Amino acid sequence: MRRILFFTLSNIGDAVLTTPALEALHQCFPEATIDLMADPRSSLVFAHCPYRGRIFHKNKKAGWRGLGSLIYQLRRVPYSLVVDLRTDGLAYLLRAQKRLTKRGIKPAGPHAVERHMAVVASLLSPSAPIPPCRVWLQPQQVQFAKAQLSPLPGHRWLALGPGANWPPKIWPASAFTALVNAVKNCFDGVVLVGGLQDRERSQAIGAHLPLPYVDLCGSTDLLQAAAVLQQASIFVGNDSGLGHLAAAMNTPTLTLFGPGRPERYHPWGNRNAYALAPDGQLAQLSATTVAHRLFQLLEKTP
């Protein structure tokens, strides 16, 4: 196969969870160029993927005219294969020798990664392992992270992600502070990571921390945040894209779930765990419970 079009997903975490299927395609067809259909919110995840071709954006705000223009661009390319992890049927409007979609798949398990892998399963050996999630960094992002974290003492750093895209998915700021107090002897410093909308929450947490900290909420792009998380000893955060970025960097990750489906959407990999709030109410999840899960994760991950 010479050229493949791969439909990834929109939200940051969802996009990261498509990268094992993307990696499997590359391993199966190492000489192929893989174009990506992505979303402006998350396409930076794929910016430095070494085997990608073009990145196309499907912008819902562009309406029917934008969609028509996009289809026109895509139909100019005769693809050997189109892999569609979405469900909107766009793959059937394009020129392709072969199409793979979610229709009729038989996942090996409930997780989103397993569902995505099922779409490409017909191309792979049944015994082939599932590749890990990936985010590709450049030296400048790593250098940025090291510079931002240089004020912190030692090297045992606890990264916290206090935000999320929906209030019921957000653990209280006071609970994050209580968690750090419970585990402070295991760490030298704290890193707060998130968007600009999380700054007020991160400031409330930082004001009462017992350890030195760096607040980077609103100060990084996606890849800079990933590079920061790569430097951390462990990440604890709400159900958001940051947990998936941390897991893709092979940083042990503890995700706090209130409402949601952790069996399907928890960060992928064997260095990750989650804490589930009673009755789906994060306000009822105690710092003591989270600290216990954190200690368990630290024990099983070197």
Topology (SSEs and partners):
Blueprint (H helix, E strand, L loop, with lengths): L2 E5 L4 H5 L2 H10 L4 E6 L13 E6 L5 H13 L3 E6 L11 E5 L11 H9 L18 H11 L7 E5 L11 H11 L5 E4 L6 H8 L6 E3 L6 H10 L2 E5 L2 H8 L4 E5 L4 H4 L6 E5 L10 H14 L2
Parallel strand pairs: 1-2, 1-4, 2-3, 4-5, 6-7, 6-9, 7-8, 9-10, 10-11
Helix pairs in contact: 2-4, 5-8, 6-7, 6-11, 8-9
Number of DSSP strands? 11
Strand content: 15-25%
| CATH-derived topology of the largest domain | Rossmann fold
Number of helices: 11
The percentage helix is 25-40%
Low-confidence stretches: none
Shape: elongated
What is the CATH C-level name of the largest domain? Alpha Beta
Number of structural domains: 2
- Residue-averaged pLDDT, rounded? 95
Strand and helix order: EHHEEHEEHHEHEHEHEHEHEH
N-end to C-end Cα span:
40 Å
- Gyration radius, to the nearest Å? 20 Å
Indicate the CATH architecture of the largest domain.
3-Layer(aba) Sandwich
The chain-level structural class is alpha/beta
Largest beta sheet: strand ordering: 8-7-6-9-10-11
CATH homologous superfamily annotation of the largest domain: Glycogen Phosphorylase B
Biggest beta-sheet profile: 6 strands, parallel
